[in-house]
Design goal:
By secondary structure, the chain is mainly beta. It contains one helix and 19 strands. A hairpin with a 4-residue loop joins strand 5 and strand 6 (about 95-105). The radius of gyration is 22 Å and the shape is globular.
Length: about 240
């Protein structure tokens, strides 16, 4: 009878996920909701623990819409990125302009990457699927994006050390897709690029006062570029 009861408990736990042990520790969720009228998305960072929201940050139009709670120092469902070395040359590899990037999860190094001359070489381990988080030395979040099978895919954001939004981008198959925006720290747009099929088809640069500075776009086989003064007037 006792043996049958033990087997029954095991079977119930197996077929009922709610009875199994859930992951513990703070978790991070990132989402993007785009306004079809303005093309300006809202990015949401939600931090949870034991299914309870403990902190959240919303960004839209280059500004923080809402910030609540205390962001945890350690998040269990992310892989952390750290730049551990920067130099001009690694003689043994014959590489110049080198940066070494380390990926760690739950306190253990899971991958190492070398960036040199704008190329990346994975020299150890494998970059895990899921959220990748890079932080500044002060512990604030610098970049967040999602890795899928070695490629960036899905919404990503970059923040200034102050926590204000710096860049918004959506990746598809490791390339930006749709509208990408970079902001000045005051929240105004620095530049805006539109990507289609892994190509930039237009770009607009702005002065810090919000006025259009330069726009570039393709017109058939011709590239059109227009420049504007700080008042937004077209320069002949």
């Amino acid at each position: 009878m006792r043996k049958s009861l033990i087997i029954l408990i095991i079977l119930v736990a197996f077929f009922n996920p709610g009875c199994t042990k859930q992951p513990t520790g703070p978790l991070l969720e990132i989402s993007k909701e785009e306004d079809p009228k303005t093309n300006f998305p809202t990015y949401k960072l939600i931090f949870k623990e034991n299914n309870e929201v403990i902190a959240k940050i919303f960004f839209k139009n280059g500004k923080t819409l809402l910030a609540e709670g205390s962001i945890p120092a350690h998040i269990t469902n992310v892989t952390n990125v750290e730049l551990i070395r920067s130099g001009d040359l690694i003689p043994e590899l014959g590489l110049k302009r080198v940066k070494e990037i380390v990926y760690s999860s739950k306190g253990k190094v899971v991958a190492r990457l070398l960036r040199h001359n704008d190329k990346f070489d994975l020299i150890e381990g494998k970059i895990p699927n899921g959220l990748i988080v890079e932080k500044y030395e002060n512990g604030n979040i610098r970049n967040i994006f999602t890795n899928r099978n070695g490629k960036r895919d899905g919404p990503g954001i970059g923040l200034y050390p102050s926590g204000r939004i710096k860049i918004e981008v959506t990746y598809r198959d490791d390339f930006p897709s749709g509208i990408t925006r970079r902001y000045y720290e005051n929240g105004s747009v620095m530049f805006e690029e539109k990507f289609v099929n892994k190509r930039i088809i237009s770009r607009k640069d702005y002065y810090e006062n919000g006025k259009l500075k330069e726009e570039t776009y393709s017109d058939g086989d011709k590239i059109v570029r227009r420049n504007y003064d700080i008042q937004g007037e077209l320069i002949p």
